[in-house]
Amino acid sequence: MQRTLITLTINGEEREVAVLPHHTLMEVLREDLGLTGTKHGCELGECGACTILLDGEPALSCLVLPLAVQDRAITTIEGLERSGRIHPLQEAFAELGAAQCGYCTPGMLLAGAALLAKNPRPTPTKMKEALAGNLCRCTGYTKIYEALEKVAERGEVEKHETATPASSSNGIGGKRQ
């Protein structure tokens, strides 16, 4: 099958990649670009493990075709690091033990970071709504919500600039697997 050469803006960096027309963005990120922080879950858009940000909004990369997002900013978990510092939400996850097996962690972090970018002091209801599309089988969500609350209370997100160059971060949720 013929591959198509496209340019994607991922974590603030333009990347050329030859894609198969039937491959999803999740497959291209993981298999072609080596960004394995985006997890391969259900392939049905039901679990949230493959969550990325498109122009700052959470999206399920298993349901997105790369050809459809050539003109959009894509942020993966590897792109949350800024100036050598992991995102405050990643720090809070580590401090509170919000990551158990870690499989849902990248999607949770990206959905949470998107919420905090729009609303630095969300209510518990808004937090639950923002994470509703991300399933976790290990934590019971309590520590995840506590991490969001901690970052909101500290007001740290305003200090953490978002969406620029890719990094090789191995911070919480960005570990290559």
From TrEMBL:
What's one Pfam family here? Fer2_2
- Annotated CDD domains: fer2 (cd00207)
> Iron-sulfur: present as a keyword of the record?
yes
User: What are the protein's UniProt keywords?
Assistant: 2Fe-2S, Iron, Iron-sulfur, Metal-binding, Oxidoreductase
Q: State if Oxidoreductase is listed as a keyword.
A: yes
List the signal peptide residues: none
Ranges for region Disordered: 154-177
- Tell me the Gene3D superfamilies matching this sequence: 3.10.20.30, [2Fe-2S]-binding domain (1.10.150.120)
2Fe-2S ferredoxin-type domain location is 4-80
Q: Which domain of life is it from?
A: Bacteria
PANTHER family, per database record:
OXIDOREDUCTASE WITH IRON-SULFUR SUBUNIT, XANTHINE DEHYDROGENASE IRON-SULFUR-BINDING SUBUNIT XDHC-RELATED
The name of this protein is: Oxidoreductase
Q: Whose protein is this, by species?
A: Ktedonobacter robiniae
Q: What is the lineage of its organism?
A: Bacteria, Bacillati, Chloroflexota, Ktedonobacteria, Ktedonobacterales
